[in-house]
Amino acid sequence: MGLQNLTNDQKMNWERLTKPGRAIQETKFDDPFALRELGLRALVQRLLGKVGLQGFLNYEAHTYERYTLEFLSTLTKGGDEEGPFITFHLNDEEQKMYYNEVMEAFGWDYVVDDDFIAPGVFNEAIFYGHITNGLVWHVTCKSCSIPHPALRFVHRFLAMTLFCHGEPTHLPKFDLKCLWAMTPEGVGCPNWVEIFVANFLELLRKEKGKISMGGMVTLLANYLDIGVPTDEEGNSLLQHLGTIEDRYLHTRPSNVYNFEQLKRASML
Fold it and tell me: Do the beta carbons of residue 63 and residue 237 sit within 8 Å?
């Protein structure tokens, strides 16, 4: 399955990804009905829209084991006079996508701003204290410590897709900075394609843990008009996050949060 036309190094990557301790987990995408019922849809759109990700809410795709393993095993990054690109295999064929094409495949807008990486602009301790009503940030902080359901949802949504974390529990400093960029006082915009590629390559190097980003690979396949894997037709996974009973969204449908309320609630 998917081992044709692979180099020895790529085959070793595939074998590493299928060792005990690794498992393919369905990518969970946004459930628009649930967010509207909970009164969170507009705010989530505005948070993501500030950093060019609002269109991403409209995308979903099944997870295929073959796509996922083949993509990760063969992923490389490079660049030429036309710009940076990635190469990978799908259905035993090598593909090449420039970063602007990757953004189109995911519905992202180009709003990259170098101010995001400027030193001294972001302070994780201050921001975390603001959005958690005074809690102290440390490296083992949990994402569930964020009381505002829209911010909590956005982190879980990106953790399951772009950050490749699987089911998120911890809140790394970089994730926190990305959330900060979405808020009214955030500065700049992350380079989402670079983050996407870096997270995928890091996932390949890990020795254990779930692999939850297969749906993202399928979105790339859809953009390239590559059909369903012939050895997995009718055998795929599609789930949503943000269902009404989701424990990450503790709120009532009548509680409608807006951008200004977030600004006040987070003391920004």
Answer: yes
Residue 1 lies inside a defined structural domain of this protein = no
Decide if 2 is inside a domain. no
Total structural domains within the chain: 1
Query: Which stretch of 48-52, 138-142, 170-174 has the lowest confidence by average pLDDT?
Result: 138-142
Q: Which uninterrupted H or E stretch holds 118?
A: none
Cβ distance 95 to 85 under 8 Å? no
Residue 211 confidence (pLDDT) above 80: yes
28, burial (CB in 10 Å: exposed 0-12, middle 13-18, buried 19+) = buried
Domain that holds residue 50: 8-265
Residue 195 contacts residue 170 (beta carbons within 8 Å): no
Dihedral of alpha carbons 140, 142, 148, 152, sign: positive
- The predicted pLDDT at position 113 comes to 66
